Backbone:
């Protein structure tokens, strides 16, 4: 059974750094892209970026280029997204998502709620 | 970059009624690489339809997708109480991550 299990909720202050994780299981982690989707409170879904763990090819959506860093450790089947300096506007639910070979997202993580507040 | 525009923003209907949701692309979507997702409060999205008209595993047949080119439709033939949710269309295939529409909320009238 394919599963994506994300790290728990975080409460941070502006300017702090953060790294959240998404562990994949039940499939070949290096053979599928895995990405991150932001959902701000009461808003829609936004792709942030995506990585292919097999060769670490990483793509960012223009709005998020330079704002976050996506990485993966294929030895432990885990994808990461990190911020070096959080802002209040980073407060959101973040989902990891695995597209299938055609690109449709057939598996989602449970979400990680990030709250940034002074 | 292709932009997906969903309409209406909110659809107010009663259980048992038919829901028709629209997703319009700013350019033609090749090979009908168009998907629909359902999201309920506090839950991750769930895949309903891919390839514009193919139901994902376990999706009831009251959900159907149609369309091609720039105009796509998700139809829920008879709304069940559990169908009240937000629905997103997504164009995929040209890049690993694709593009989402802004969503349509189906609420109880």
Residues:
């Amino acid at each position: 059974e394919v599963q994506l299990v994300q790290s728990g909720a975080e409460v941070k202050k502006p300017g702090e750094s953060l790294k959240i994780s998404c562990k994949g299981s039940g499939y070949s982690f290096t053979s599928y892209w895995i990405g991150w989707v932001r959902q701000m409170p009461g808003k829609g879904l936004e792709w942030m970026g995506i990585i292919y763990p097999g060769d670490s090819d990483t793509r960012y959506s223009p709005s998020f280029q330079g704002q976050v860093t996506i990485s993966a450790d294929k030895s432990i089947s885990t994808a990461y997204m990190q911020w070096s300096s959080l802002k209040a506007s980073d407060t959101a639910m973040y989902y990891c998502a695995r597209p299938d070979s055609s690109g449709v997202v057939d598996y989602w993580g449970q979400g990680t709620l990030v709250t940034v507040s002074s | 970059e292709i932009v997906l525009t969903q309409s209406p923003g909110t659809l107010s209907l009663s259980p048992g009624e038919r829901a028709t949701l629209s997703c319009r692309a700013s350019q033609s979507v090749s090979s009908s690489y168009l998907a629909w997702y359902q999201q309920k409060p506090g839950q991750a999205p769930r895949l309903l339809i891919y390839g514009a008209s193919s139901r994902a595993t376990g999706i009831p047949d009251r959900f159907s997708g149609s369309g091609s080119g720039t105009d796509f439709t998700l139809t829920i033939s008879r709304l069940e109480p559990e169908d009240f949710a937000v629905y997103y269309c997504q164009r995929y295939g040209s890049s690993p991550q694709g593009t989402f529409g802004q969503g349509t909320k189906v609420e109880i009238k």
User: Anything to note?
Assistant: Chain B touches chain A through 24 residues (CB under 8 Å). Chain B has no helices and ten strands. The first strand of chain B starts at residue 4 and ends at 7. Chain B has a mean pLDDT of 94.
